[in-house]
Design brief:
- The chain has a 7-stranded mixed sheet with strand order 5-4-3-6-7-12-13, sandwiched between helices. It has a 4-stranded parallel sheet with strand order 9-10-8-11, sandwiched between helices. Strands 1-2 form a two-stranded antiparallel ribbon.
- β6, α7 and β7 form a beta-alpha-beta unit.
- It is of the alpha/beta class.
- The chain is 43% helix and 13% strand.
- It has 2 domains: 255 residues, Rossmann fold; 235 residues, Rossmann fold, CATH 3.40.50.460.
Length: 596
């Protein structure tokens, strides 16, 4: 098989390790703290998880652990969408297992959780894993979005795990997958099985985190990949000086990706869904705010810019959220009537006539293409698939209409041309950054140590990530500690609580303090491609989010990065022509304040 030069080089990369991993595995003991409580709904969750609720946080210390030397079989599952570094989790897990006992075996279930139900697995050997170390993707065993939910499925999962004589099952996934891991751990224990279940935090969206899980793996690589592309587009925009680029970024439930990319590239506008929801901003207000920035820059001779849009924005806009819910209900209850309508125009007319007045007004004001997406792109249950709504094109269409109104009234004198982009799959399976390669390997090795410690119902955790790997602290967090109850499919279900952007947190505050200046001036940063070799400040730096949340402005990587940073001069700006836009007639400060 022919492989690239970089791929060959990455196979040989040795992840940097926390000091705890430098000892023989039989010299590492598990240490336990005090009992824990869930994130919410404590009494109900105690009833749902009577055997695994309230376990203590786990750490490691020097001491004898003969259990680590036993010959064992372990199963591993990749669950959900891809995230850079998944292969290194498996590599760290396998290396830990083999250090414990060379006769131990690791089996990878094919195609996600369904592989466990089908008993479809392959043995992951050192020779096999060596072909995947430090590379992106989940192609070593594949992934899947199936869930183990029914009593028959739980029973079959236990049977197959027993038939393979598994000591433990490691599930690498996001919040839903790790919720499933918690349910499996409880089920296995309730059936008298000592098969352990350990989770690993994965999602590029960055919404699987809390006080103890500082970030999910893959986020670092994904945002750096997106930021490179945004920087490239910004450089082109600053060169051509004639396009406004609207860039949609992954992140349905939270805007962590959009916020981090804004911190890395300094766009003219970056929308944060959580702020939109808190301020109850309407779609019209969002469009007006963007147009204020466009007019302000036009008054300065800058007819170009960058707008970042989170994928899930529409569900955070109050009237759009209400419309989507109303459409889902209407199309579910009137499915047979809707299905026989002969054309899209007939469908639009039917929906318009049957919506409540408020939702009807919102729907009627949407571009034709967005109406089509709302009606045509639905899941098997009839619900609108928000991820398929081209939010960036919705905003370009509406800003174009608004700017035309402003031109007609004489309030806008510049030119306005838009281009739209969606950055999604480009970041999900990229070569992992050094940070993710190191972090993921540590998560996998930690998972083995949790198994060797006899624990179940835990998620692998590595802390102090704003600092070099030599200062990282591995451990384990009870999965039930991260849970609450949420309404799902008509009833309350236990789920791991998603972490939204904290509008009082340091990353958002750092963004909010500077965005007015970014809106007015051209101050783009160009992060460039992910670097794998060179100074630690370039090759090993974590995200700005991690540094702001967990470190300090003087954290080692941050300080070194600041010292070696190349400053970019702002673009020269033209003076506004006489009789320019409203923003150019002495109202620049007001427009900028409004844009903020």
């Amino acid at each position: 098989m022919e492989i690239s030069v970089l791929q060959t080089a990455r196979y040989a990369y040795k992840p940097k390790l926390p000091p705890a991993f430098l000892k023989p595995v039989a010299a590492i003991q598990t240490s336990l703290g005090k009992p824990t409580e869930s994130a919410g709904d404590q009494e109900e969750l105690k009833r749902i998880f009577p055997l695994t609720y309230g376990k203590p946080i786990a750490g490691f210390r020097a001491g004898k652990n003969p259990e680590a030397l036993k010959k064992i079989n372990v199963g591993v599952i990749l669950s959900g969408g891809q995230a850079p570094g998944g292969h290194n989790v498996i590599a760290g897990l396998l290396d830990g297992i083999k250090k414990g006992n060379p006769g131990s075996k690791l089996f990878g279930f094919l195609g996600g959780p369904s592989g466990l139900l089908k008993n479809a697995a392959l043995e992951i050997t050192p020779r096999l894993i060596d072909q995947y170390r430090n590379t992106g993707g989940f192609d070593i065993i594949g992934s899947g979005r199936a869930k183990i939910e029914t009593p028959d499925q739980f029973a079959l999962a236990l049977k197959n795990a027993r038939d393979m004589d598994l000591r433990a099952l490691v599930i690498i996934g996001g919040d839903d997958s790790n919720t499933n891991a918690a349910l499996l751990a409880e089920y296995f224990a309730s059936r008298g099985s000592d098969i352990q279940v350990i989770g690993v935090p994965k999602t590029i969206d960055g919404d699987l985190k809390n006080e103890y899980i500082e970030t999910s793996f893959g986020f670092d690589t994904a945002v750096k990949t997106y930021s490179e592309l945004i920087g490239n587009i910004a450089r082109d925009a600053n060169s051509a000086r004639k396009y406004w680029h609207f860039i949609k970024l992954m992140g349905l439930a939270a805007s962590h990706i959009c916020l981090e990319c804004a911190l890395q590239t300094q766009p003219n506008v970056a929308l944060i869904s959580e702020e939109v929801e808190e301020k109850k901003q309407t779609l019209a207000r969002i469009v007006e705010n963007i147009c204020d920035v466009i007019a302000l820059r036009a008054s300065r001779g800058l007819d170009f810019g960058i707008v970042l849009v989170p994928e899930g924005l529409v569900e955070f806009i109050p009237e759009m959220k209400k419309l989507i819910s109303a459409l889902s209900d209407l199309l579910a209850h009137q499915a047979s009537t809707f299905a026989v309508l002969p054309s899209l125009d007939d469908q639009i007319r039917f929906v318009t006539e049957n919506l409540e007045p408020e939702s009807r007004e919102v729907f009627s004001g949407l571009p034709h293409g967005i109406k089509r997406q709302l009606l045509m792109d639905r899941d098997p249950h009839g619900n609108v698939q928000v991820s398929r709504i081209e939010t960036e094109q919705l905003l370009t269409a509406m800003t174009e209409a608004k700017i035309k109104e402003m031109k007609d009234s004489g309030a806008f004198k510049g030119t306005y041309t838009t281009l739209s982009h969606f950055l999604g799959y480009e970041g999900r399976s990229a070569f992992p950054s050094n940070f993710d390669a190191d972090y993921c390997y540590s998560l996998g090795y930690t998972a083995f140590l949790l198994i060797a410690g006899g624990l179940t119902g835990y998620i692998s955790a590595v802390r102090n990530l704003a600092h070099p790997a030599k200062d990282w602290t591995p451990g384990g967090i009870p999965l039930t500690m991260m849970m609450n109850l949420e309404q799902r499919h008509g009833s309350k279900k236990p789920v791991i609580k998603k972490a939204l952007v904290d509008l009082k947190g340091r990353p958002f505050k750092a963004f909010a303090a500077k965005r007015e200046k970014w809106a007015r001036e051209t101050l783009y940063l160009y992060p460039g491609a992910i670097q794998y070799y060179g100074p630690a400040a370039v090759a090993d730096q974590p995200t700005k989010t991690i540094i702001l949340e967990r470190g300090s402005v003087k954290a080692p990587q941050a300080a070194a990065a600041k010292k070696s940073a190349v400053k970019v001069k702002p673009a020269k700006e033209k003076k506004p022509a006489a009789g320019g836009s409203a923003a150019g007639k002495g109202s620049k400060k007001a427009a900028a304040k409004k844009a903020k």
